[in-house]
Amino acid sequence: MKNVDKAYELARERYAEIGVDTDGAMAKLAEIPISLHCWQGDDVSGFEGSRELTGGIQATGNYPGKARTPGELRQDLDLAMKLIPGKQRLNVHSIYAETGGEKVERNQLEVKHFSNWIAWAKQRGIGLDFNGSFFSHPLADSGTTLSNADAGIRKFWIEHGIACRRIGAAMGKELGTPAVTNIWIPDGSKDIPVDRLAPRLRLKESLDRVLSEKIDPKYNLDAVECKLFGIGSESYVVGSHEFYMGYAAKNNLLLCLDAGHFHPTEVISDKITSALTFLPEILLHVSRGVRWDSDHVVILNDELYAIAQEIIRHDFCDRVHIGLDYFDASINRVAAWVIGTRAMNKALLAALLEPTAKLKKIESDGDFTSRLAMLEELKFMPCGAVWDYYCAKQQVPAGDVWLKEVKNYETNVLAKR
Ligand code: RNT
Ligand code: ZN
Predict the structure, then answer these.
(1) Could you tell me if residue 125 is inside a domain?
(2) Closest atom, ligand 1, to C-alpha of 56
(3) Could you list the pLDDT tens digit for every one of the 417 residues in the chain?
(4) DSSP label at 116?
(5) Phi, psi of 413, rounded to the nearest 5 degrees
(6) Is 328 a catalytic residue?
């Protein structure tokens, strides 16, 4: 792209005028990891077989070229990651185990079933994160797992949770960076329950058992993800926000805040400071719900800016683990990764290019006129010129040049699947 350097020089001067160091901002941005979710590559199918996606989540669309094998998924990820600047991780679900054709029950999973993922991550110098998969399974068909009234079913899922934490820890040990192992369960009910308490007490007890084994946080960090509703669990979700906020605070766990898991006008950006007042660390599932928890591809909208501002303004980079969580099957899936992850990086860059100390001073002085005026002026500062330069420096395409590569890949690889 032409004039990237020139535009950057001007942008740097312009930002210097308001007291912002663009080189420093880029250096910081390059160190903030974003965990890509492997499940965007195949509509949350995994490699267990062809069972449908359950748990009240849904990937709509049937865009051609979805990854069908571990090799294809990794090949697609390789391309996406080449087109995204900055530091990345990969978030793997347990249904992406590679068992060599053998049927391995989820409560029997071991780290060896993820050795290809670990080798792949090692080669690329990136960390892995992990998730138990409490859905798309016959023992989840009733709509409940860890809170199921049947002790046998609960036991199965408890064993799954225990297996997953061990796998996460092994990943963390092998790769030298702790895996965040997240627990999300779909448990809930379609219609109004009479007893809202018993399932929650069962869930608490199940979680206590899953988490009873002490694991060094150097290797594995545990997160729990709350939710408001899902398809088929419209009236009641066992693991609600209050449930997991309480559970995480009491047990020193990470709380996972998914951007699609709250009332439509409720935002997770405002929850970050509240959660971090009581918890050491949190995990984000950055997503984009449209009218419901639809998991649209993340874009640079107001909430994404706000999420990034909350992380950067309070210097929470070490306490907020940024993961993505969406699955759009209606567009090119590699492009979906690239668009969402680049958007997250752009939002972080915009936040890093803010004269935060100055704004905080204006605010504490009570000058809300200047606060509003400055926040508005900041929106049209030449952030894009810094972004282009940052991409070029990171040796990834600036502007929409990346799209050409994805289109070529679509013609040469995806279309032949
Ligand atoms: C579901 C949760 C959960 C899943 C993934 C696949 O509503 O957001 O995080 O999307 O784990
Ligand atoms: Zn999520």
Answers:
(1) yes
(2) 7
(3) 789 999 999 999 999 999 999 999 999 999 999 999 999 999 999 999 977 999 999 999 999 999 999 999 999 999 999 999 999 999 999 999 999 999 999 999 999 999 999 999 999 999 999 999 999 999 999 999 999 999 999 999 999 999 999 999 999 999 999 999 999 999 999 999 999 999 999 999 999 999 999 999 999 999 999 999 999 999 999 999 999 999 999 999 999 999 999 999 999 999 999 999 999 999 999 999 999 999 999 999 999 999 999 999 999 999 999 999 999 999 999 999 999 999 999 999 999 999 999 999 999 999 999 999 999 999 999 999 999 999 999 999 999 999 999 999 999 999 999
(4) H
(5) -120, -60
(6) no
Closest atom of ligand 1 relative to the 287 alpha carbon: 8
Q: Is residue 308 part of a domain?
A: yes
Query: How many domains does the chain fold into?
Result: 1
| Residue ID of nearest Cα to ligand 1 atom 9 | 184
Q: Quick check: CB of 288 below 6 Å from ligand 1?
A: no
Is ligand 1 within 6 A of the CB of residue 37? no
Residue 198 burial (CB count, 10 A): 13
| 345-371 exposure pattern, b = at least 16 Cβ within 10 A, e = fewer | bbbbbbbbbbbbeebeebeeeeeeeeb
pTM above 0.90, yes or no: yes
- Residue type for position 62: N
Pocket flag, ligand 1, residue 410 (CB < 6 Å): no
Structural domain containing residue 48: 32-354
Q: What is the CATH number of the domain that holds 140?
A: 3.20.20.150
Report the separation in Å between the CA atom of 285 and the middle of ligand 2, taken as the mean of its atom positions.
Answer: 5
The residue from 37, 160, 261, 346 that is catalytic is 261
Query: For 133, phi and psi rounded to 5 degrees?
Result: -115, 100
